């Protein structure tokens, strides 16, 4: 999906979600939302700013192909923005520095939608700096299996022992050393620490509608991903139900190592609000490595990572049921 930053932004601010285009459409992505008609785009990504004449040239080429054009640039001069507006070209400005605001506008048959600057609200200064992914992996591992040696942690996470030592220092008072190894000082507090900081939002998520129930849909998709050799793991409702059944799952959420068109499995691209199946790709390099095999052979995320899924997806009842189960058991079954 080209680059990762814009998609979560337009989903949050505009309610527009990205999905795979139909085969042989000549497009790269499809954008759709409740008030945004499903629109296919040829996307052009430029690592450096372009000139107005370049924008007009690419717009003319897209018109000849009969496709809508979406241009992604790190910055845009007023002249470039004006040329895009004149040519009805969708323009997303994605600064190279992480965390910078994405701006620009989109065109569809419904007209133009501006990606305005977000309203800034003061947030608690809970992250003095970026937490390394390995530190999160260590925190999840200590929630899953307390009293573990540094050597075992290094082997399970897939990092060196010095890196584990650094991650333990990053966690500071959230963990403690015991005679048997390392553990969370308070599982509840460590879980809350992760929840407050962990960048759960997918790099990209595609949304689909299927006639199958979520559990059946998840199995169908995971079988398809296995056939294609794509690393994956089930999370969300379906995974939670396998750990602590409490209610019928409403959606299937699958994390994968690469995007793939799920129409071959009988699924139909749709908006997030109408979907019951999601395929997501994470920036966390340890997420899929942490997956385990369930009794039925499915690849599942560990229970505490599933809990994060549920909270971030707004499935509060399921999240509460799962957390109560995990804290009562001390560790997942």
What does this structure look like?
The chain is of the alpha+beta class. It has three domains: 5-115, Trna Endonuclease, Chain: A, domain 1 (3-Layer(aba) Sandwich); 133-197, Arc Repressor Mutant, subunit A (Orthogonal Bundle), CATH 1.10.10.10; 204-328, no CATH class. 37% of the residues lie in helices and 22% in strands. It has eleven helices and 16 strands. It has a seven-stranded mixed beta sheet. Strands 11-12-14-10-13 form a five-stranded mixed beta sheet. Helix 3 links the parallel strand 4 and strand 5 (90-93). The two termini are 37 Å apart. Mean pLDDT is 85; it is low at 118-128.
Name the features.
333 residues, alpha+beta, Trna Endonuclease, Chain: A, domain 1, Arc Repressor Mutant, subunit A, 3 domains, 7-stranded mixed beta sheet, 5-stranded mixed beta sheet, 11 helices, globular
User: What's the domain count?
Assistant: 3
Shape: globular
Task: Note the total helix count.
Answer: 11
**Unreliable stretches:** 118-128
What is the beta-strand fraction? 15-25%
Order of helices and strands: HEEEHEHEEEHHHEEHEHEHEEEEEHH
Largest sheet: 7 strands, mixed
By DSSP, the count of extended strands is: 16
Q: What average pLDDT do the residues reach? A: 85
Radius of gyration, Cα only, in angstroms?
22 Å
Short description:
With 333 residues, this protein is an alpha+beta fold. It is built from 11 helices and 16 strands. It is globular.
